[in-house]
Amino acid sequence: MLLRVVVVSFVFLSLLNNGNAGITSTFIRSEWPSTDIPIDNEAFSIPKAHNAPQQVHITQADYDGRAVIISWVTPDAPGSNKVQYGTAEKRYEFTAEGTVSNYTFYQYKSGYIHHCLVDGLEYDTKYYYKLGSGDSAREFWFETPPKIDPDAPYKFGIIGDLGQTYNSLSTLEHYIQSGGQTVLFLGDLSYADRYQYNDVGLRWDSWGRFVERSTSYQPWIWSAGNHEIDYMPYMGEVTPFKNFLQRYATPHLACKSSSPLWYAIRRASAHIIVLSSYSPFVKYTPQWEWLREELQKVDREKTPWLIVLMHVPIYNSNDAHYMEGESMRVVFESWFVQYKVDVIFAGHVHAYERSYRISNIHYNITSGDRYPVPDKSAPVYITVGDGGNQEGLAGRFLDPQPDYSAFREASYGHSTLEIKNRTHAFYHWNRNDDGKKSATDAFVLRNQYWSSNQRRRKLKKHYLKSVVGGTTI
Amino acid sequence: MLLRVVVVSFVFLSLLNNGNAGITSTFIRSEWPSTDIPIDNEAFSIPKAHNAPQQVHITQADYDGRAVIISWVTPDAPGSNKVQYGTAEKRYEFTAEGTVSNYTFYQYKSGYIHHCLVDGLEYDTKYYYKLGSGDSAREFWFETPPKIDPDAPYKFGIIGDLGQTYNSLSTLEHYIQSGGQTVLFLGDLSYADRYQYNDVGLRWDSWGRFVERSTSYQPWIWSAGNHEIDYMPYMGEVTPFKNFLQRYATPHLACKSSSPLWYAIRRASAHIIVLSSYSPFVKYTPQWEWLREELQKVDREKTPWLIVLMHVPIYNSNDAHYMEGESMRVVFESWFVQYKVDVIFAGHVHAYERSYRISNIHYNITSGDRYPVPDKSAPVYITVGDGGNQEGLAGRFLDPQPDYSAFREASYGHSTLEIKNRTHAFYHWNRNDDGKKSATDAFVLRNQYWSSNQRRRKLKKHYLKSVVGGTTI
Questions:
Q1: What are the pLDDT digits (tens) for A245-292?
Q2: Is the omega angle on the peptide bond into residue A400 within 30 degrees of 0, that is, cis?
Q3: Which has the closest alpha carbon to B333: B304, B313, B354?
């Protein structure tokens, strides 16, 4: 119960300071150190029954949303490898069988990690599922998305750089309250690499239990950040992404990607492309070859919303990680403009920032525009690296605010993108400081494909009669 | 013998056209298609004895040059895994035992690939070695470099994008005539990925036999190019660098690199850093972390010459692969300037180009220099991607020649860097068109560390009394 009290106190303190963003974030950082929740806290509680499944999480398993991968860990023995599931509570008509594996990281030995494909699901349906058996059995549910359709409404949550602090918990609980149906996760999960030796593996485990309150009930779409690299030569651990790849599955084979680190899914009315900031991406690399083909597959008539996720932001005016996205920008930005990507979400910087529609694709070393310029075909770039983690907030922004930056603030939070139909989506950045789902940056996002004048005329019936306040982009 | 005649004809034709570089290269491309030498040509001849070692190649195996890795392939059976070696011809005092492995690529099954570490060698010594036994035995020799010393003279060859055409053969034979002691290879070895299915593996084999005339007698220091990626999803082969990594060893463990694709060696008076253009290199990746530490280890008092190899050039004014080096430039260029790298060699572009000492490190998206500016601390960038391969020459340069470009020409060739002492080195680009080792671009390279006024005064005794003609850089 201690935990609850702590969170409430945090919210109260924050409410006192919501007048000025700068002061608020400074205040929080000094008064409320961004330390990890102690490992024995109930936020990481281990199911009591012997060898009960823990760290349960699901993700989309196919291209179009009719399959999930259900993953979990059994700590002491392999246990059952089966998922029982069905459309009625407590009545599990079907069974699927998965794989089990374990691994070491330094001297840490992981539990038994299960990944089970559950496919052939109906769209727009609630499924109940059960893991384990007897006393140790645990039950959950999830909802499949609507069939791929240009006007299918859907609400995505967007979370990055989450970690396992009290701020992380606040973000997670606020997200759960938001009614989001699927999380687009922007990399940097557990921050376990801030620990040493066997604690690294243990903090990956604790994080799996920490987020289970959401990940077991809805898909999280994973992208990998620098804290997933886990390059630790002093421990003899140099295989990049070892912990992450063992624990978090992605549907990369369904979209013909050769790596779980970059892939794409379609869900409701969205085509979502996940890129890997820390894998090779220059011309001729597998990620570059794959992305070139995947972009050609995007059909805005079927999935009007083209969304890209990556860890390192392409545009960022924070002092932290400034210009780290340049390497990827010079390779991919012209494609993002050519294909009229609607929005690109990134994490990495522990603050919130949104750009105008701008591009910087004309510079060619000896001529061309020097700085980013307004570009109607460009995506909106949004950094949501403020999930909350032990590294704290990134409070120093470039002064003055560059022309490309539309909104920025160093406060913890998450975002939601609520797609209404093929032309409009509601976007909100929800700041934790306000103690509840409070939209601090909110606007209506107009679809980049369907908002052309010609297409718009054809689609008058799709027009929204009313929109929420805020900018329309 | 047909081969010889062909090469002589080629040389004759070329000599007729050495007046104008532009015309020469155009002429060669149309009159002398850059096709691979037929697989049954004697350039790829297989040793006659059953299961005799083939594709013999050596590389430096440690940090300082007292060890080599000797590699070879036995086609039909594992055969002997031993290397016999010694300092007198036909008298092999010592024996080392290596490893053997094989692999598949699509349905191609490789021969038995041997890698044998031979260490504890004396500096500056000729070693003879023998592979196999009985009728199938083959004998070679190599020379170890001088002990690490700031004034140790040494002659490196620089070859890139070699392939297995008649032009490749010409480059190779010209290089052998040059008296170079070790090859710095800039990536793109066999161009086997221009073939399909089982021919890919077979063309890796033929290339190994093709270059054996040099690689079995002196170390080649390998870097990997895009033609080593071998990403071929249509064949089910998607593991990057699979053929290359099986066949070509590098001493990455000796310099604490976690990958054979990036590493460093010290040899005579040079510290050579090999980077991987197609591996992750942005901040926080293993290559970035490793390079940061390796640059701190460079001791210009011991190894005055700091040389970096990579496949994709940072500066290139050829239409081919224009700006492909930008991703790596924005990450590493400031380090190259900070550490006063002497020269950076790259391949990739099938032409020759040399830059002035320039840098482009002040641009920061909203301010800073727009274009590269003269910078005395910057490296000279040299592109030697003109080894000769079936893709032909890259004859279209940006017009006008940008300020940063000092010399450029689309002709086949190789370079040599002849280090004389801590302050001076002779550099030559040797154009094949001239039919013999003909220095078309030549200059004296002044060491970036020892050429400072203060250090120069201390070192008057090291000054060269006479230097060859050409620019001094």
A1: 999 999 999 999 999 999 999 999 999 999 999 999 999 999 999 999
A2: yes
A3: B313
What is the spatial distance between Cα A211 and Cα A232, in angstroms, rounded to a whole number?
25
Closest CA to A387 of A267, A210, A265: A210
CA angle A409, A413, A414 (to 5 degrees): 115
For residue A48, is it left (φ>0), alpha (ψ between -120 and 50) or beta? alpha
**Structure ipTM:** 0.91
Cβ atoms of residues A208 and A54 within 8 Å: yes
As given in the structure block, the two tokens for residue B293 are: 């530490």
* Whole-number pLDDT of residue B365: 87
Assign A453 to helix, strand or coil.
helix
Specify burial of residue A86 (Cβ count, 10 A radius: 0-12, 13-18, 19+): middle
Strands A405-409 and A380-384: unpaired
- Nearest CA-CA partner of A190 in A309, A105, A66, A306: A105
What confidence tens digit (pLDDT) does each residue in A99-146 have?
Answer: 999 999 999 999 999 999 999 999 999 999 999 999 999 999 999 999
Residues of B with CB under 8 A from a CB of A: 226, 229, 231, 233, 238, 240, 256, 258, 277-286, 289, 312, 321-324, 326-328, 330-331, 360, 363-366, 370-372, 398, 402-403
CB–CB of B328/B281 below 8 Å?
yes
- Catalytic residue IDs of A: 321
| List of chain A residues whose C-beta atoms are within 8 Å of the C-beta of residue B258 | 231, 233, 238
Quote the distance between the C-alpha of residue B61 and its chain's center: 16
CA distance A429 to A389: 18
Confirm if A95 and A149 have CB atoms less than 8 A apart. no
Angle between helices A326-338 and A286-297 (to 10 degrees): 20
Beta strands in A275-392 (DSSP E): 305-309, 343-346, 352-355, 358-359, 373-374, 380-384
Q: Nearest-CA neighbor of B221 among B180, B256, B249?
A: B249
Element housing A293 (H / E): helix A286-297
Which residues have CB under 8 Å from B16's CB, separation 6+?
A: none
Which residues lie below 8 Å from residue A4, measured CB to CB, with a gap of 6+? none
Predicted confidence at residue B435, as pLDDT, reads 61
pTM given for the model: 0.91
Instruction: Single out the residue of A69, A354, A82, A432 nearest to residue A220, CA to CA.
Output: A69
